[in-house]
Amino acid sequence: MTSNTAAAPASPPAPATGPAPGSPPADGPRPAAASAVRSPVASPVRVLVALAQLAALGVVGPVVFTVLITLLSTGIGTAVVLGIGLLLLIGFVYALWAVAWLEAARIDGLYHVGVPAPALRRRPRPGFGGVLLMFWRQAIDPGVWRGIANFAIATALGLVTILLVAVLVSGIALTLSPLLAGEGVSRLWGWDLELPATWAFVVGPVMVALSAAALIGVAILHGVLSRLIMVPSREAQLAAQARQSAEQRAGAVRAADVERTRIERDLHDGVQPRLVSVGMTLGLARQKIDDDPAAATALIEEAHTSTKAAITELRQLARGIHASVLDDRGLDAALSALAARSHVPVQLDVRIEGRCERSAEAAVYFAIAESLTNAAKHSRASAVRVVVRRRDDGTLWTRVEDDGIGGARILPGGGLDGISNRIVGAGGTYRLDSPHGGPTALEVSVPCAF
């Protein structure tokens, strides 16, 4: 683990708060489950754990649904009273998500079938309309409702499980009752029914056998239904993977097109006019070299200065296409060099272990470089803070935040558009938060290997 900090005279800006506007990938197709789907084997331990969970859900489930129904009905009834109902409806939506998330985690932990957990939606665009759209998409998320449906079925099976456990215990008690009742009358435990003691040895074991078989059947039925409801089908997984691959290809193509346009613009507007000027200056120097050697020498000196400036611009252009230090010394060193060249003071905090895939490091490097360029050109920022981490889930995460005037938007062909295209092309996600008045924060997450 390494930590590198560039000089930053100003203190780091305060972190942005609230949901970020403009995060299309968060609402796009999510990757299918990473682990292979396996059939839930009815092993004794798994059956017992499933029955224990179902019995618990038989007790907790009705309470949960009572709370959900209360939130929904009260929220609808008080929606026009000072907005209290809207808060209750928002609580209802996120309570649904929490139940679905816990149900996905329970099923995946019990059967190891690769259940994708429902994700929290993000605000697709700024403003109150974006907030409403975010809540609406969260409310109609198919993954959430699959989890709620499975939770409802599991609750019903839990109630059946509790009943069957009562029958099982009654059967055991009836089987053992003659040992206490002798030749008298045995009372069926929990039931208003009496049997002769001689019949207890017959009815009790039958009740135990039937209830135990029914409990095993309930556990197996729970596993089958959970797999059918919660686990995406093979066709759905392939369709999601195809959509993700198509988005990555489209993002890579757009990123390449934006990069090509930028290179052409920089060559046409920067290096080319300078080289033309150098040629004209040398032509004038050649005409004056015999008649006015001093003027010719001054012109040659001017051409030499312009040539060095053109070489510097070409180096910067090449560095923007590919940073050789990124391959040689890694992302930490490349970002240190980038921060040292920045016109705005940068506080750099890089804590990563090992190396990621070259395309992932290049995508993160490009996003940070473009963000620093935007901060210097447009945001009027006095300080920029860059944080890079390698997370436990195998993703490379970075956050670039400046204390500028904000108002950054993704425009076709712009620098932020190039960042979004490159990140999507690398299979990652991005999040931009730039309210008017600042600060501007860009978060990027890219898988280290894919």
Short summary:
By secondary structure, this protein is an alpha+beta fold. It is 63% helix and 9% strand. The chain has two domains: 33-231, no CATH class; 246-447, Heat Shock Protein 90 (2-Layer Sandwich).
What key attributes describe this structure?
alpha+beta; Heat Shock Protein 90; five-stranded mixed β-sheet; two-stranded antiparallel ribbon; 13 helices; elongated; disordered N terminus; ATP-binding; EC 2.7.13.3; nucleotide-binding; membrane
The H-and-E topology, N to C, reads as HHHHHHEEHHHHHEHEEHEE
The tally of strands reads 7
Distance between the termini: 22 Å
Spatial extent as radius of gyration: 33 Å
**SS-based class:** alpha+beta
pLDDT under 50 segments (min length 5)? 1-41
Strand order of the largest sheet: 3-4-5-7-6
Level-2 CATH architecture of the largest domain: 2-Layer Sandwich
The profile of the biggest β sheet is: 5 strands, mixed
What does this structure look like?
The chain has two domains: 33-231, no CATH class; 246-447, 2-Layer Sandwich (Heat Shock Protein 90), CATH 3.30.565.10. 63% of the residues lie in helices and 9% in strands. The chain has helices spanning 24-27, 44-77, 84-111, 128-139, 142-176, 178-181, 197-230, 234-288, 293-321, 324-329, 331-341, 358-377, 415-425, and strands spanning 185-187, 194-196, 346-351, 384-390, 395-402, 429-433, 440-447. It contains 13 helices and seven strands. It has a five-stranded mixed sheet. A two-stranded antiparallel ribbon has the order 1-2. Residues 1-41 have low confidence and may be disordered. This is histidine kinase. The chain crosses the membrane at residues 47-73, 79-102, 151-177, 197-225. Residues 1-34 are annotated as: Disordered. Its EC number is 2.7.13.3.
